[in-house]
Amino acid sequence: MADLLVVKAKIKDVIGDYNVAGDFAEELDKIVRENVAKAVKRAEANGRRTVMAKDL
Question: How far does CA 21 lie from the centroid of its chain?
């Protein structure tokens, strides 16, 4: 897999005292990539080359 879009250290900062399984960041990365791809498609469908928050 390519480099992760999510930062493991930042995940731990948000989670706090909980442990983070080794596969958590990879799975979260998949979800982020899917949502980014959907946002790009929505922007394209609306004739834009700028992806905006509303595309999520």
Answer: 18
User: What whole-number distance in Å separates Cα of residue 17 and Cα of residue 8?
Assistant: 14
Q: State pLDDT tens for residues 1-56.
A: 579 899 999 999 999 999 999 999 999 999 999 999 999 999 999 999 999 999 99
Output Rg (C-alpha) for the chain, integer angstroms: 14
Q: For residues 49 and 27, what is the distance between their CA atoms, to the nearest angstrom?
A: 28
pTM: 0.84
To which H or E segment does residue 10 belong? helix 8-15
Of 38, 30, 31, 32, nearest in space to 56 by CA: 38
